[in-house]
């Protein structure tokens, strides 16, 4: 362990779609690799140069720790930090036979303990259950952050969220926190309706080719002020775009395959005057945003329990991936420590 590192005993880790994307080859990784990046735990050891973190402290792991020195960090966009751009695995540690080991997203949280740089550890404020706090490390920062930081949704504005996995449900929660109305949740599975309504959606629609027509019927024919695409597919991006009003914003949160293409014609880009952008990590700075989200949890405004449908062991990660592939449930939380 280096002088600027921290050893953390993992208490809980969420199974994220990004983990599935690395497992199935959508995102390339270096092997051998330990996946897992959405996690919480307790500090058990610190390097000699670490003064900001103490042994025994409850923490959330940050898989996109900014360097604080590059152009993006200096210009207020640490989620675009050059040091973490495109990084899917980081070589750290070895196997018993000396083979170099890689950590997924620089964390490798599907493990009993991890060693990470101190910058990858965010102290957890009191009042947040340590197991549920794992969700703050990715799903909640990404989903709520897309609503708050990227779109800056205002009370009374209309919101559409396509895809009701962990991040999509977190985006619905973020829209509720922002006072949006209506909040329209969409998924291919009718079984997601109860989860979406519990998260704060006012309406639920099953996805179909003419989805935008149904969305417009709920928004006085205009379309929504803000749409959030949380799937990462060409068809759902076009559906989100087509459901957004003139002058509204369409925000891509889902990570898709580079082989797919989304086509727009020049006339529609001019005519609709919509903004099309992505939201990377919810445009979040965990050092800034985790304390704010923790206060939302403490106050009861943000219910992390609503994101968890399965509590599992490390041995059941494969089952969690299978549920994710078939669109079942929301987040699976691995209880480790």
Radius of gyration: 20 Å
Helix content range: 25-40%
- Determine the N-to-C terminus distance: 21 Å
Largest sheet: 7 strands, mixed
DSSP helix count?
Answer: 10
- Report the β-strand fraction as a percent range: 25-35%
- Return the CATH class of the largest domain: Alpha Beta
Mean pLDDT: 95
Order of helices and strands: EHEEEHEEEEHEHEHEHEHEHEHEHE
Provide a compact summary of the structure.
With 337 residues, the chain is of the alpha/beta class. The protein folds into 2 domains: 5-138 and 283-335, Medium-chain alcohol dehydrogenases, catalytic domain (Quinone Oxidoreductase, Chain A, domain 1); 143-280, NAD(P)-binding Rossmann-like Domain (Rossmann fold), CATH 3.40.50.720. The protein has 10 helices and 16 strands.
Structural summary, described in words:
The structure is a single chain. The protein folds into 2 domains: about 5-140 and about 285-335, Alpha-Beta Complex (Quinone Oxidoreductase, Chain A, domain 1); about 145-280, 3-Layer(aba) Sandwich (Rossmann fold). It contains 10 helices and 16 strands. The protein has helices at about 15-25, 70-75, 140-150, 165-180, 195-200, 210-215, 235-240, 265-270, 285-300, 315-325; strands at about 5-15, 35, 40-45, 60, 90-95, 100-105, 115, 120-125, 160, 185, 205, 225-230, 245-250, 275-280, 310, 330-335. The strands form 3 sheets. Strands 1, 3, 4, 7, 8, 15 and 16 form a 7-stranded mixed sheet that branches. β13 (about 245-250), α8 and β14 (about 275-280) form a beta-alpha-beta unit. α3 packs across α4 (about 165-180). The mean pLDDT is about 95.
